[in-house]
Design goal:
Elements (H helix, E strand, L loop, with lengths): L9 H23 L10 H19 L7 H26 L7
Helix pairs in contact: 1-2, 1-3, 2-3
Amino acid sequence: MISPPFWTLWYFQLPNFVLAALMYTLLGRALLGLIVQPDSSNYIWRFFCRLTDPVVAVVALVTPRATAPVVIWLFGVVWLFWLRVGLLYLLLFLGAFPRAA
């Protein structure tokens, strides 16, 4: 059985890639946040914060304000994971994703 080329499923691959990159960057931010101060000038830390701040802002809207930032970041990882699963199931439901024979 030959798998289809990458670009034939671009409508799944590209959003899935973006969600995965955000998810793993947010996980990296949570791990790095354990050893780096929140106001650090480290360029890697600033990159992780700049990239994941929009996701953190959305997750923070529905989480209690008393929640520690690291917990909000981890909730964001879980939400992004379920968005990826939801995208797969949506495309399977719509018949836009090839099934294994």
